[in-house]
Amino acid sequence: QLQLVDSGGGLVQPGGSLRLSCAVSGFALDHYAIGWFRQAPGKEREGVSCISSSTGSTYYADSVKGRFTISRDNAKNTVYLQMNSLKPEDTAVYYCAAEAVMFRLCVLSAPEYDYWGQGTQVTVSS
After folding, report:
1. Quick one: pLDDT band at residue 102, thresholds 50, 70, 90?
2. Taking Cα atoms as reference points, which of 92, 111, 110, 102 lies closest to residue 41?
3. Which of 17, 30, 77 is nearest to 56 (CA)?
4. Measured between alpha carbons, how far is 59 from 56 in angstroms, rounded to an integer?
């Protein structure tokens, strides 16, 4: 059974860091693109970053470029989102998602993704 479990959220002060994890089971990471999305109260779900399946190419939203880094460990079947220099506007529930696709660069479009984690809350506040 295909499953994604995201974790690592919490409360952090502005300028701080967090690392989110997305543990996957039931499929091989190199056959799926993995994306991170977030949704703040009253706002639409927003794509944050993704990593392509076969090439491992990465993509970032402009709002997080230079501050967030996505990576994956195929041996551990886990994808990470390292978040540095966090801002209050980064506060949201963060979700990882998987798209069954190969030989195409990942995209930050939620409807393209087939499977979703349960979400983890990130709060940036002093």
Report:
1. confident
2. 92
3. 30
4. 10
Cβ neighbours for 33, distance < 8 A, ≥ 6 positions apart: 50, 51, 52, 53, 98, 99, 101, 104, 106, 107, 113
**Long-range contact set of residues 15-19: C-beta below 8 Å, sequence gap at least 24:** 15/85, 15/86, 16/86, 16/124, 17/82, 17/83, 17/84, 17/85, 17/86, 18/83, 18/86, 18/122, 19/80, 19/81, 19/82, 19/83
Tokens 């501050």 correspond to 67
* Amino acid found at 123: T
Q: What value does the mean pLDDT of the chain take?
A: 95
Distance CA 109, CA 71 (A): 19
Give the number of other Cβ atoms within 10 Å of residue 37's Cβ.
24
Count of all residues that appear for the chain in the document: 126
Cα–Cα–Cα angle for 54, 66, 48, rounded to 5 degrees: 60
